[in-house]
Structure formats: C-alpha cells, structure tokens
Design brief:
Helix content is about 35%, strand content about 15%. It is of the alpha+beta class and about 130 residues long. The protein has three helices and three strands; from the N terminus they run βααβαβ. Bound molecules: L-tyrosinamide (TYC). The site of L-tyrosinamide (TYC) has 13 residues, from strand 1, helix 1 and helix 2.
Length: about 130
C-alpha cells in the first residue's frame, strides 16, 4: 500500500466539472485533489495543542515542606513524587511540576503564585513552551 486511500464506490466523488484543475485558495478544502487527480478521503483536520512545562524555581527561604505541599495540592503528586521534585529543584535550581495545555498551565502558575504570596513565601512558579 502507498498510503493513498481512494474513495470507494459507496462514497462517490463529486467532480465539479471541467475546470477541476483550476487553482484554488488555501483552506477551501480542495487541497487533497491537487495535481494527481486522485481523490483522497478527507481527514478531519485536528491539531494537537502546544504543551507547556510548569516550572518551580529554587530559593533559599521557602521551606521544603511548603514546596512538597504545593506539589501535592496543585499538581496532584504523591508525597514521594513531590519530595523528589522538590529535592531536584533544591539541588538543580529549577524543575518541572507538570506539562499542560496553555490555559491549564497558566492557571497552575497563578494558583501557586497566589498561594505562595498569601503564605508570605518567595516561591516562584513559571511556565515555558515545551
Ligand atoms: N531551597 C529551599 C530550602 O532549602 C527549598 C526549596 C525547594 C525552595 C524548591 C523552593 O522551589 C523550591 N529551604
């Protein structure tokens, strides 16, 4: 197989006349009929969303237990996972809490920053495109 799927006879193609080879505008749904004259079965156009890493930054003041609590509460980590991530951030300066779509990542960052501020901790949380 060459990966090209012609329409079968149950699903007759509708030629739209002798000017079928006319140029067309991008996005008009005609892309699959260009050049070859072979009609390809149109696939629904789905796009994977871009993903974003939510990062915690180390500082010298925020208690380790507070960071572990943040990871459990906002990132649904177990105590062991949270401890591992916290220690990674403590030692390396930065670490990944989770990877989310833009809106979810943005919400997590805001939740952590609000909670840290309300708790008078300097903990910093940010996000970056994957
Ligand atoms: N370095 C902090 C301490 O020694 C602990 C800490 C870990 C702070 C991770 C922030 O994102 C952080 N108390």
């Amino acid at each position: 197989m060459n990966g090209i799927q012609p329409f079968n006879n149950d699903d007759p193609p509708d030629f739209d006349g002798p000017d079928d080879d006319q140029p067309h505008k991008p996005g008009d749904g005609q892309e699959e009929r260009r050049q070859t004259g072979i009609l390809l079965k149109p696939r629904p156009k789905t796009k994977k969303p871009s993903m974003y890493r939510v990062l915690l930054l180390n500082d010298d003041y925020t208690p380790m237990e507070f960071v572990v609590h943040v990871l459990e509460r906002f990132f649904n980590k177990t105590r062991q996972e949270a401890t591992d991530i916290m220690l990674h951030v403590h030692r390396r300066g930065v670490g990944v809490c989770g990877i989310y779509t833009y809106e979810v990542a943005e919400t997590k960052v805001a939740q952590v920053m609000d909670f840290a501020r309300a708790s008078e901790q300097p903990l910093q949380c940010t996000m970056e495109k994957e």
